[in-house]
Automatic annotation (TrEMBL):
Residues 10-261 form the ABC transporter domain. The keyword Aminoacyl-tRNA synthetase does not apply. Keywords: ATP-binding, Nucleotide-binding, Transport. It comes from the Bacteria. Signal peptide: none annotated. One of its GO terms (biological process) is peptide transport. This is Dipeptide ABC transporter ATP-binding protein. PROSITE patterns: ABC_TRANSPORTER_1, ABC_TRANSPORTER_2. Belongs to the ABC transporter superfamily. CDD domains: ABC_NikE_OppD_transporters. InterPro entries: AAA+_ATPase, ABC_transp_ATP-bind, ABC_transporter-like_ATP-bd, ABC_transporter-like_CS, Oligopep_ABC_C, P-loop_NTPase. GO terms for molecular function: ATP binding; ATP hydrolysis activity.
Amino acid sequence: MSSTTPPPLLDVSGLTKHFPVMGGFPFKRRIGAVQAVDGLDFTVGEGESLGLVGESGCGKSTTGRLITRLLEPTGGKISYRGQDITHASRKQLAPVRSEIQMIFQDPYASLNPRQTVGKIISGPMEVNDINPAGGREARVRELLETVGLNPEHYNRFPHEFSGGQRQRIGVARALALEPKLIVADEPVSALDVSIQAQVVNLLQKLQKDLGIAFLFIAHDLAVVRHFSQRVAVMYLGRIVEIADREDLYGNPRHPYTRALLSAVPEATADDTPRRERILLTGDVPSPVNPPSGCRFRTRCWKATEKCASEDPPLVRVDGNREGHLTACHYPEDTAGLAVPAARKSL
Ligand SMILES: Nc1ncnc2c1ncn2[C@@H]1O[C@H](COP(=O)(O)OP(=O)(O)OP(=O)(O)O)[C@@H](O)[C@H]1O
């Protein structure tokens, strides 16, 4: 990076979170650790959307909570606009905190049922002592309109809204402090499928119109496909592949990414090639005692002894476009990715 290149909006390196596991009798002591997040490296550029996907329990939410500093990292570094915020105190964090906001999965649990919508959305402004020109109420009404709700509903309570509308209230609350980065943790997975696209479209519009960057967390590759410019795939606390959207969906190099993608339904005509369906066997191993070497090897059809003894680094694979990184000793040859529908195996 040249000295004139501005740092990325968010720069995460070696980020680690290990939760202690306590046990023993009669005195409890630390007997191990859940390696929820184990050495993540990624960046999010100004106005960019990075999708973070993976199965339940792979560490996505923990990553989101580390970045918003709801959790204290065990190791690694988080930089925001070049400023190290990894262990910043509440006071040091104050100016940054308003710029990094979070949207939660559950639009039912994340809104106080006893507060009006007006109170909920103006809450962050009150806490941060922000008084917009025209007053807080006018700003809240403006925000309600921005997220597609009726400004006249200022005095209504959360139970008077549908799930999709409640998630819009959560979005309006996140927008109240004019954030530069929103960590959206499974923002649509609690919603009806018919409503999911509407909320994703809203977030997409905010990214485009307001230039807000997103870390969009989802377990479903289909959800991030239309929203994220880049996608990172996590498995058991690690990123196994990260690439531009077109590269990741069109040329997946990690066997795990390929397996996840094979489960995404495709709208193809009957005579066009379909992706081979790959069913992963076995469960995700415990993050307390992850496999040696490559963490995916216990479920990988390509694993060899090397995979058990050597941890594959996240590196650019020969021939890959710049920025397409994979952590695998035997990256996929995607020439064989599409197989005719007649040969499709289950
Ligand atoms: N406070 C905690 N104490 C101990 N273990 C935790 C804690 N929070 C999360 N974990 C564990 O860390 C691992 C990663 O959890 P995390 O919630 O980040 O995964 P996830 O990918 O977001 O999954 P999901 O989609 O189900 O929320 C899991 O094994 C989880 O049980």
